[in-house]
Amino acid sequence: MKHFRLALAAPFLASALALAVSLPANAASASAPVNPKPAAIASAEPSASVLPQPPKIAAKAYLLVDVTADGRQLAGSNIDQPVEPASLTKLMTAYLVFNALRAKQISLTQTCTVSEQAWKTPGSRMFISPNTQVPVEDLIKGMIVQSGNDATITLAECVGGTVEHFVQMMNDQARTLGMNATLYKNPDGLPAPGHLTTALDLATLAQRLMYDFPEDMHYYAIKKYYYPGTPISNQNNRNILLLRDPSVDGLKTGYTDAAGYCLVVTAKRDFPGLGGRRLLSVLLGAISEQGRANESQKLLNWGYTAYEDVKLFDAGQPAATPTVWKGASGILKLGRADPIIVAVPAGDASKISTQITGPEPLIAPFKQGQQVATLKVKLGKQVITEVPLLALETVDEAGFLGRAWDAMRLWIR
Q1: What are residue 250's DSSP bridge partners?
Q2: Residue 15 appears among annotated catalytic residues
Q3: Of 90, 141, 326, 378, which is the active-site residue?
Q4: Does residue 240 register a pLDDT over 60?
Q5: Which residues constitute the domain of residue 335?
Q6: Residue 2 is assigned to a structural domain of this protein
């Protein structure tokens, strides 16, 4: 049995964390690429006695995620159940609009023509007139703050050429993000046969939206907006938690008769040593506007009190430095480009232990960012989360003589 060399992030954790490595003998070198941050939402299944139990939530489905702790799932119900997303659909529409802005396919000051189709779209509206030219930034605000279907269709036509092509772009992007249970039929979320998603897919989308386009997230915190010249002024953001809770800074509401009242909400609260802890709540199928806000607030408050985040390693700090064979370097530094932070039940930081598992022997080459091992965090005997460990630097193959020497050493050891 071979063991990685381990490095602790903080001295105060040294007595609390027992780090060990369990490696299968003669395993092949890891080579699968790792998905970019944020990681897929992690969900361990320890016994019910280990983890805090969430409050009862009045909704068809819900999910609470600790974004700071690598997307750790804290609580959920019916997270894989297909549901109608209503205007939560506009999260994907926004993703594609922000992507087009970054690619300079459109600009914030560019104007888009309001078509008859956009003007006639029913439901919530920005109240823009047909055949007028509206700047992209105002359309974004109309889509996000007012949930305007007219603004949404105008943006879809501006970015995709046609609504039909834009919907195909939405579905292609959903597959790219791993939202395999989602199918879009339109950009605005009006009821349509087969227009479905899940709480889990919505949490994945919301995390990627925040991570991929942080410069655009300020739109979701706007409390009031109207477009000059439209008949209704000072429209409030339908996310009333923006007015109730100063830590809430997004994201989106949704409602149809079939979907019920839905809300994806994110909040960030200051915590010592972390610089801020962000939680994400997805709540689907509440019975009223007040209900979706109250139940989402209940989830957030519970998550902040029932769990705490513990930093195990700083950004770029090696969590392990195992021996590498046939490489230009004799060791491989394993860690993450971001800090490794885990969510644990409040008060249990001193009770967790960690274990690093991975293949042995490690045979070069390794590329920077390649997943090589896994850091398992345990509370008692139960694994509460797993964090992929990546190569922090590239290790090329050694020359012919170096490879031959290590091949002989491996053969006789």
Answers
A1: 266
A2: no
A3: 90
A4: yes
A5: 11-46+311-412
A6: no
- What is the CATH number for 128? 3.40.710.10
Phi, psi of 200 (to 5 degrees): -65, -45
- DSSP 8-state code for residue 351: G
**Percent of the chain residues topping a pLDDT of 70:** 87
One domain for residues 161 and 218: yes
Tell whether 136 and 230 lie within a shared domain.
yes
- Residue where the block lists tokens 């800090």: 339
DSSP string, 282-341: EEEEESSHHHHHHHHHHHHHHHHHHEEEEEEE-TT--SB--BEESBSSSB--EE-SS-EE
Task: Confirm whether 90 is a catalytic residue.
Answer: yes
Class of residue 290 by CB neighbours under 10 A (exposed 0-12, middle 13-18, buried 19+)? exposed
Whether 147 is a known active-site residue: answer yes
Q: Which of 29, 87, 124, 296 is catalytic?
A: 87
Active-site entry in 29, 124, 141, 147: 147
| 244 and 315 within one domain | no
The dihedrals phi and psi of 222, each to the nearest 5 degrees, come to -70, 125
Based on the fold, state whether residues 106 and 224 are members of the same structural domain. Answer: yes
Query: What does pLDDT average to over the chain?
Result: 88
Residue 233: what pLDDT?
63
Q: Using CA of residue 101, residue 104, residue 106, residue 110, what is the dihedral sign?
A: positive
Q: Give the integer Cα–Cα distance in Å for 312 and 310.
A: 6
Closest-CA residue to 355 (of 13, 11, 23): 23
pLDDT at 235: 84
> DSSP of 252-280, one letter per residue?
EEEEETTTEEEEEEEEEE--TTTT-EEEE
Q: Is there a domain that residue 323 lies in?
A: yes
Cβ atoms of 112 and 154 within 8 Å: the answer is yes
Q: Distances in Å between the alpha carbon of 389 and those of 5, 114, 297, 363, 370?
A: 14, 48, 34, 16, 8
CA distance 332 to 324: 6
CATH number, domain at 23?
Answer: 2.60.410.10
pLDDT for 310 beyond 90: yes
Q: Are residues 326 and 252 in the same domain?
A: no
Are 40 and 106 members of one domain?
Answer: no
Give dist(CA 222, CA 252) in Å, integer: 11
Look at residues 148, 38, 113, 52 and name the one whose alpha carbon lies nearest to residue 388: 38
With the CA atoms of 91, 166, 137 and 292 taken in that order, what torsion angle do they form, in degrees rounded to the nearest 10? -20
Q: Which two tokens stand for residue 147?
A: 């949930």
**What is the number of domains present in the chain?**
2
**Residue 194 belongs to some domain of the structure:** yes
